[in-house]
# Entry
Amino acid sequence: MMQVHISLSGPNHMRISWITLVRTQATVYYGTSPGNCNLSANGNSNIYHYLRYDSGVIHDAVIGPLNPNTLYYYRCGNESSKEFNFKTPPHTFPIKFAVVGDLGQTKYTNSTLDHIAKSNYDILILPGDLSYADMYQKKWDTFGRFVEPLASKRPWMVTQGNHEKERIKGVHRSRFTAYNARWVMPYEESGSTSNLYYSFEVAGVHVIMLGSYADFEPNSDQYRWLLADLKKVDRRRTPWLIGVVHAPWYNTNEAHQREYEGEGMKKAMEDVFFKARVDVVFAGHVHSYERFVRTYKNEANECGPAYIVTGAGGNREGLARRFILPRAKVSAFREPRFGHGQFSILNASHAVWTWHRNEENVAIASDKVLLRSLSSVPACYKS
# Structure
């Protein structure tokens, strides 16, 4: 039993995922006392094939209902296996998200994860590019073991990036084979038909995880799902609304300019996000950090989302060090450093965003800003 990670799965439930080398029960035993996992839930198992690679047996089981802000202990497969533990998120504010994109599995990634581990976060959001396996499937296994110490203790909510596609024309025609098998997200729970885009709600926050590499044009399933999902949002219950993509809609780095996945999705969906009063949009893809002021149609707008690029988790391709000059007025802060972000939502109206570089041994934020939820700004939002 290895590569354990957890993710939210609908209200008050958690999905536990793990891999074994041989077929075993897809059962999770859990409880609130160490050594006393008196509850259980059965799940599903699957195996995928990629060229000459056969995966281990991938299991996942959904447990719950669970109490908020509670430490649970669990075992995967059988009652004598290794005991893990996780803490459920709070049911109301405050809540803290760790945000990091383009993670990989390098010494820089290790530094990023060390910093995140010290942050006392509740949920991690990863805007795509996880393992950088790039068709070498054993890298998915090393990544699973690499992140297990953190991913088994707090829910990791991820979306796909370009490095997850892993399609080989004429040889392996399916995209996202490993990603969809290994990292099942709550797409069905949110009414989506694809693991590449979904939403979840937690502690007064509605988070929309979009698929930059799934069709997003106005006639697409993803676009129609987004409109339907936003209709379900009640800003009295979830005053904060967050969007997550891989390819950024706003980016003043020289890297990844004029790409369809970013520019095309922005053209298709920016009006939708603006009208919905999305508070902040996190992205990855560009291996650097950049924060924009609240923006709409390339201009500062107090009712638009704050766009933040966090693609500097530690990937093997290195940093994107060159920014376009002169700096655009809407670009508030940018630096080519590895690190992660923390989004601490204090209450229904205010949150603090901080960016933490890896260079410091202690948690020193090189960028910090106080954000107000648009649902609390009368000029922007009328319930």
